[in-house]
User: What shape does this take?
Amino acid sequence: MLMKMDKKTKITIGVLAVVVVILSCFIVYGLSMGWMVSQQQAAYTIGYQQAIVDVVTNSRNCQTGVPLTIGNNTYTLIDVDCLRSANTTG
Assistant: This one.
């Protein structure tokens, strides 16, 4: 047998359902933003690591210095081992 609900009970259930839906949306949004931020941080770290590997790899050829630009300043990096080998052979 179905029980009849009064109007106040129906309104309370409706309001609670809306609150649950809204809270669920906030939770899903928060979790997805946390995941996206962690992915961005991982990509940022990998980019830094790759830049360092590139600088070291380019400095190992001992041809010229490796230009490194920071802001408006450009620095030329030279591997110390290249300088040592140039001094001993030259």
Observations:
- The chain has a mean pLDDT of 85.
- Residues 7-89 form one domain.
- DSSP finds two helices and two strands in the chain.
- Strands lie at 66-70, 73-77.
